[in-house]
Design brief:
single chain; about 325 residues; alpha/beta; Quinone Oxidoreductase, Chain A, domain 1; Rossmann fold; 2 domains; seven-stranded mixed β-sheet; six-stranded parallel β-sheet; about 35% helix; globular; binds NADP nicotinamide-adenine-dinucleotide phosphate
């Protein structure tokens, strides 16, 4: 079979190549999935660069999520039940950028036939993070303000739509003006463009001296640090990405006055602490909100596996039009 492989960490466009490798056999409790498509997410690119929380043994195949059809199963009831089903493939160890992949049967989730392959490919990482951060960790009440950075990202757009559905209001920080109109159209309540204005001044105008109580940051550096300064009494900021690749710098007294907090969030760690019922509830919510159009992903370009260099270059570009998808079958 064909698989995308890298045997050293580095620039994805330089280190990735397509190789012929043996088709793997599922062991007990495992299934083999014939992959259809997989998105190229920031976490995949960070993993290939050696900058991610997961460092696989090399040579390795990237790909933390995607969609495919279960074609065979090792021993075990769940695998047999899943055989023949179209599923979202949750692969925390990576490996989905290949024609066939082996995963534990509990890590494949049947997807409603009303959801396209394109949408099913991004079933888990961003939709689950959007729901868990806003509804289960921060529990943002309706009518409260939530501030988020990189709001034009695939995940940021989901949060804007989720806010409309749930009733909370969003302050959306972006770095390019062009993103403002689009986010407004989706339902973003306020847009702050860092190229034109100061985050702190604008937030002060919106919330007065109260500041924000809920914030999400995936940028870090100057942007994330400014967000910490907008927190009001009891304010909580979840850090869930490091797109600027620069540390947060702020006076720690900011946190003491008003008992504010900055916390990390990583979906992989969160999932490890959850039981089967919570995960089933989460999958049901995602299936439902994908059908409603709340957790959908705008796909900007699709590339075949053979064009992997062009695909990762596009996925890494400033101002790319939408998510880049790898078409495997
Ligand atoms: N912790 C977790 O469990 C978890 C789970 C899912 C996602 N994430 C994180 O969530 C973030 C968004 O993921 P995604 O798949 O939605 O990304 P995406 O669709 O690829 O979008 C990336 C966005 O980030 C913006 N951006 C990139 N570098 C930036 C910088 N230095 N300053 C400001 N904005 C910047 C881009 O802006 P332009 O349009 O201007 O280029 C783009 O809008 C990533 O950091 C990802 O790692 C974390």
């Amino acid at each position: 079979m064909k698989a995308i492989v890298f045997d050293r960490y580095g620039d994805p466009a330089e280190v990735l190549e397509v190789r012929d490798v043996p088709i793997p056999e599922p062991g007990p409790g495992q299934v083999r999935v014939r992959m259809i498509a997989a998105p190229i997410n920031p976490s995949d690119l960070m993993m290939i660069r050696g900058q991610y929380g997961v460092k696989p043994t090399l040579p390795a195949t990237p790909g933390f999520e995607g969609v495919g059809v279960v074609e065979s199963a090792g021993s075990g009831l769940l695998g047999r039940l899943r055989t023949g089903k179209r599923v979202a493939v949750l692969n925390g160890k990576s490996g989905n950028w290949a024609e066939h992949v082996i995963v534990p049967a509990r890590q494949v989730v049947p997807v409603s036939s009303k959801i396209s392959d394109e949408q099913a490919a991004s079933f888990f990482v961003n939709p689950a993070t959007a729901i868990v951060m806003t509804k289960w960790v921060l529990r943002v009440p309706s009518d409260a303000w939530l501030l988020q950075t990189a709001a034009g990202s695939a995940l940021g757009r989901m949060i804007v739509k989720l806010a409309k559905r749930t009733g909370f209001k969003t302050i959306n920080v972006v770095r390019r003006r062009e993103q403002a109109a689009e986010l407004q159209k989706l339902g973003g309540d306020a847009i702050v463009c860092t190229a034109d204005e100061s985050i702190e001044e604008r937030v002060r105008k919106i919330t007065g001296s109260e500041g924000v109580k809920y914030a999400l940051d995936c940028v870090g550096g100057q942007t994330g640090s400014a967000v910490v300064r907008t927190l009001g009494p009891g304010g909580r900021m979840l850090v869930y990405g490091t797109l600027a690749n620069e540390p947060l710098t702020f006076d720690s007294r900011i946190l003491m006055v008003g008992a504010k907090s900055v916390e990390g969030f990583w979906l992989s760690s969160w999932v490890k602490d959850q039981g089967v019922l919570t995960m089933l509830r989460l999958f049901r919510s995602i299936n439902r909100m994908l059908k409603e159009g709340v957790l959908t992903t705008d796909v900007g370009a699709t590339f075949p596996m053979s064009d992997i260099q062009a695909a990762v270059r596009q996925a890494d570009q400033v101002g790319k039009a939408g998510k880049v998808l790898l078409r495997i079958k």
